[in-house]
Amino acid sequence: MFRCKGVIILRWICGVAAATWLAAWLMLRLASGSRYAALRRLPAEGMKLRQISEPFLLLLERVNAAARFPAFVFRLQRSIQRIYGQRHSTELTLLFMAEMLAYHWLLSLSGWVLAALSGEAGLLVLGLALAAALPAALAADLHKKVKLREQLMMMELPELLNGIVLLVGAGETVQRAILRCLETRKSDANPLYRELAVMSAEWNGGYSFQQAFENFSKRCAVPEVSLFATTVLLNMRRGGGEFVLALRDLSRLLWEKRKAVSRTRGEQASSKLVFPMVVIFLIVIVLVGTPAFMMMNM
């Protein structure tokens, strides 16, 4: 009897909470209107809840999230800039934060609704736990993508530099050498070549070589790429053997750094295999040990 009353009370509380949660979103949606409609057209891969997250943009604006959590917003915006570029980085940061709130709202609502329908407190706890964990996981995944992007650039930069050294040594100009390397790897998904393609478009759009190269270095935001850009800009006017020697010295340095990155990635891959191996080992022990244990009891 007491259990039945507890289930009824739990269902009533969860139903009221779900209705309140939904009403709060509807109020924000009506208040925002078409104020943020232009943000829907911003290119941003991975943001899938724009229709649901739009009202939360108004909430972020009202609470002045950037002033209340400056360290978190700054770190998030820096990662957004490296993934999506500096253009519209402020708006994309707000969209990403609204996406995090949308996932939190949606999972919380799901937990309240499922608990109201079933009367199971475990479903409510699961929904609230996911609502708390998933937004943090989204931010962690974004920062992980930034690190992966930096590693991919670092791994590919020595190959690019070797191609430039060979072509410049054969008599090509630096600009032509870079364009030739870009043409041969145009279909490569490496972010380094995507940024080089943007740099090439800037050349064609009227930027000087120095301006385009500096913009390329800023977009990449990787110390090794900045060192590469600085070396090229400082030595390209000298030309001849001095320029090639400077690039070769830089190439040796970058190959050593590439080896270090490769070792780090190898260690990370091996550490990820530890948990599956432990699980497999436990399963084997259970499969082998259970029949023997049953025979001993018999």
Automatic annotation (TrEMBL):
<keyword id="KW-1133">Transmembrane helix</keyword>
<dbReference type="Pfam" id="PF00482">
    <property type="entry name" value="T2SSF"/>
</dbReference>
<feature type="transmembrane region" description="Helical">
    <location>
        <begin position="121"/>
        <end position="140"/>
    </location>
</feature>
<feature type="transmembrane region" description="Helical">
    <location>
        <begin position="92"/>
        <end position="115"/>
    </location>
</feature>
<keyword id="KW-0812">Transmembrane</keyword>
<dbReference type="InterPro" id="IPR018076">
    <property type="entry name" value="T2SS_GspF_dom"/>
</dbReference>
<protein>
    <submittedName>
        <fullName>Type II secretion protein F</fullName>
    </submittedName>
</protein>
<keyword id="KW-0472">Membrane</keyword>
<feature type="transmembrane region" description="Helical">
    <location>
        <begin position="6"/>
        <end position="31"/>
    </location>
</feature>
<dbReference type="GO" id="GO:0005886">
    <property type="term" value="C:plasma membrane"/>
</dbReference>
<feature type="transmembrane region" description="Helical">
    <location>
        <begin position="273"/>
        <end position="294"/>
    </location>
</feature>
<feature type="domain" description="Type II secretion system protein GspF">
    <location>
        <begin position="164"/>
        <end position="291"/>
    </location>
</feature>
<keyword id="KW-1003">Cell membrane</keyword>
